[in-house]
Amino acid sequence: MMSFAEIFVGLLLAVAALALVARRLAIPYPILFVVGGLLLGLIPKLPTFRLDPELIFLFVLPPLLFPAALFTSWRDFRANLRPIALLAIGLVLFTTVAVAYLAHYFMGLPLAAGFVLGAIVSPPDAIAATAVADQLKVPRRIVTILEGESLVNDATALVAYRFAVVAVGTGSFSLGAASGQFLIVGLGGILLGLAVGWLAEQFHKRVDDAPIEITVSLLTPFVAYLSAERLGVSGVLAVVAAGLHLGRRMPELLTFKTRLQGGPFWEMVEFLLNGFVFILIGLQLPEVLRALSGDAISLPRLAWDALLLSLAVVLIRILWVFPATYLPRLLFRNLCKHDPYPKWQQVTVVAWTGMRGVVSLAAALALPRITRDGVKFPGRDLILFLTLTVILVTLIVQGLSLPPLIRWLGVKDDGAMEKEEREARLQANQAALAQLFGIAERDPAKADALARLRSEYEDHIRQVEGIEPETAGAPLRLFSSEYERLSREALRVERRTIITLRNQDVINDEVLRRIQRDIDLAEARLRHQP
């Protein structure tokens, strides 16, 4: 019998090996993690792995959703709120209903259990969408819509799931009561998340210690989630709201040391959690098949039901996305003035990107075995099997086919963000240079340090403008304390400039973070402390 330590080390080794293969093959790593876990699960006499749904909901979901929200551009999220809401709320509920009736009439599940299955498989996965989007050079708006959808749709699906499970146990369902409760749970989660985010902001304002601040940032999503669940509101929306609020405020709150250490920390947290969870998803299939072996359902029938449901989930998304994109513009002509018709190729990319993942599996595993009436939960093992196959099919088929589909459609990055970044860098360097000229006029004694620093900023400006710097390749001299002090003053001006541009919605938060990282690295290279 393998010990927990041996299992943990083995999974860690599998994560590293599969990630290396994924990088070599240029495949989004969640796909290879799932396939690798599936292959590992077929090894004879391998210990059985059972995922605790509470473990996923508490220890996996919050720390994965929080950085996704933290690094989301609020400007772009707000600008695309309509399509995000149509996908994250409208499509999730539409999928839930459609799958419920499909499962009832074609797979023999009771209608209430069908609604449970529909709620489970309705939300595309935040992790998978982000992992695929990061590797694809597509217009920024597509990435924003996909990431924004994945931040909100989990909350919609889990609330619908909660009502569906209750309906199975009680045998009754009230649409009016459910709708009112849906609004209360959603709004309550958002308000609580904003409150937690504000409290975390006050802490970061008063503390300047990178390890402590990173620890508090790790605790923030857990506090938001646990508090919300205790109060009976949406923990997912609480985490997302806290992340969005702090993501907007962090560039002004944190020092360069905390930002430079916090970024790699969150990248490592995401990578390890993604690796463990997606490998464990693949490992669940043998256990699920063993659970179904005692039921009077033939293997061909199981395969047919799994194929039918997977195909339905994909087609439902396509059938929703195209009308939801074009009908509002046909019905409301004023909408086209602010948001013209998108190209059908771009709409196709959004329609095809619907991979399922962690939340769907956790919700299926969390199904009670016995209802409140003391009877067996109808179709529980079948629901778990169908959920797992939908995850596998959408991740592997849609995930692997998406890059060639994008190339075939000719969808390319429009370069809008790179243009914003060039303009912001130019304005930041020009503002810093103007500050240095002002210092030179007030204090001629600093002429030597100022001359060198001004020369460097002039070179930076020429680089941004595409002109070869005059001093390219010239060796740097040792920093003097006066030079470092002036450099910090110039860097502060750069920071203020790009934050102002972000606050004025001239650039988005991702462009801000890119430039701010370079400024942070430049400050970190200075030896003396101010």
List how many beta strands DSSP finds. 0
Low-confidence stretches: 471-478
Shape call: elongated
Oligomer: single chain
Using only C-alpha atoms, the radius of gyration works out to: 26 Å
- Provide the helix percentage: over 70%
N-to-C series of helices and strands = HHHHHHHHHHHHHHHHHHHHH
Largest β sheet strand count, sense and barrel closure: none
Structural classification: mainly alpha
Strand fraction equals under 5%
Specify the number of helices: 21
Q: Please tell me the overall pLDDT.
A: 84
Q: How far apart are the first and last residues' alpha carbons, in Å?
A: 58 Å
Q: Can you offer a commentary on this structure?
A:
The protein has helices spanning 4-25, 29-41, 53-70, 74-79, 81-106, 111-121, 126-135, 140-170, 175-206, 210-231, 235-253, 256-292, 299-331, 333-338, 344-352, 358-365, 380-409, 416-442, 447-464, 481-503, 509-524. The chain is an all-alpha fold. It is elongated, with a radius of gyration of 26 Å. Mean pLDDT is 84; it is low at 471-478.
Task: Give the topology.
Layout: H1 4-25, H2 29-41, H3 53-70, H4 74-79, H5 81-106, H6 111-121, H7 126-135, H8 140-170, H9 175-206, H10 210-231, H11 235-253, H12 256-292, H13 299-331, H14 333-338, H15 344-352, H16 358-365, H17 380-409, H18 416-442, H19 447-464, H20 481-503, H21 509-524
Helix pairs in contact: 1-2, 1-12, 2-12, 2-17, 3-10, 3-11, 3-12, 3-16, 5-6, 5-8, 5-13, 6-8, 6-16, 6-17, 7-8, 8-9, 8-11, 9-10, 9-11, 10-11, 10-12, 12-17, 12-21, 13-15, 13-17, 15-17, 16-17, 18-19, 18-20, 18-21, 19-20, 20-21
